[in-house]
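wait is this the right file?? whatever heres the structure
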């Protein structure tokens, strides 16, 4: 754990703003269950995102669209029971906020009340402004998410880098300003050119957290199953693998099978 990670008793949205202002990078990872969240929090992470990527990595769906609000609350409450220090942000799932700010507020309230999480994240720009503002009226902190927004995958059709063209880049810059001015405490930028992300981080006052958005932003986020090499199916250029748990777990399981078949496990010391 870094020196400053030890010093911070609880990460709040205010702490994140201070980190941006003094140039200290913000670390964020996903987690969806108690055991993983305990390890990630004990290691000193600043933010855990209970991402709707749970739909992919936990449930095996092809997209993030099928996961429900009840399922997100289940994952979020497991994470909240594990943590002592980090800020817990929960994705509002597809269909729980789009196009209806009253429903957005009700969904956000359910997440906060039933899971004990600290903030919610919504995908989109100007089209969700009203929902962001309505959620904020209940005192619920909101994180934005621009660039590649997986809940809109059927609109875009592919997972390629976003905002490479000037028109889309200009729209993204305007949306980032609009989200910050509406009261979002931070914004995730996913899979956009590093130069554009760096410009947004310089212009916009709130912390900008990147995933596939280069080094010039205020923090980084990855999906924990990807960076630990549990899930080997997803290998984008922006992903750095910090472990090969797929191999380690597979080897352990194979050895266990060998030991059981050979009647080596359990031995006398492991029996009552
Ligand atoms: O759901 C998720 O994991 C996310 C991150 C990729 C930012 O939204």
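ok assuming it is, sequence goes like this
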């Amino acid at each position: 754990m870094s020196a400053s990670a030890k010093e911070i008793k609880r990460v709040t949205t205010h702490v994140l703003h201070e980190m941006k202002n003094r140039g200290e990078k913000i670390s964020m990872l996903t987690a969806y269950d108690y055991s993983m969240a305990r390890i990630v929090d004990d290691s000193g992470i600043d933010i855990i995102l209970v991402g709707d990527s749970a739909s992919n990595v936990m449930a095996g769906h092809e997209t993030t669209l099928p996961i429900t609000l009840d399922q997100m609350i289940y994952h979020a409450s497991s994470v909240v029971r594990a943590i002592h220090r980090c800020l817990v942000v929960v994705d509002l799932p597809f269909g729980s906020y789009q196009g209806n700010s009253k429903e957005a507020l009700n969904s956000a309230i359910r997440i906060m009340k039933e899971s004990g999480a600290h903030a919610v994240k919504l995908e989109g720009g100007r089209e969700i402004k009203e929902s962001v503002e309505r959620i904020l009226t209940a005192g619920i902190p909101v994180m934005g998410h621009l660039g590649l927004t997986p809940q809109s995958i059927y609109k875009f059709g592919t997972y390629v880098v976003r905002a490479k063209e000037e028109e889309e880049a200009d729209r993204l810059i305007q949306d980032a300003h609009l989200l910050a001015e509406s009261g979002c405490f931070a914004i995730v930028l996913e899979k956009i050119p590093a130069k554009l992300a760096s410009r947004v981080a310089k212009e916009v006052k709130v912390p900008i957290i990147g995933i596939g958005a280069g080094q010039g932003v205020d923090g980084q986020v990855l999906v924990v199953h990807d960076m630990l090499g549990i899930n080997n199916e997803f290998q984008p250029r922006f992903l750095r693998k910090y472990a090969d748990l797929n191999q380690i777990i597979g080897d352990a399981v194979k050895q266990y099978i060998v030991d059981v078949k050979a009647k080596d496990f359990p031995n006398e010391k492991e029996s009552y």
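The longest strand covers residues 142-147. so i think its the right one actually
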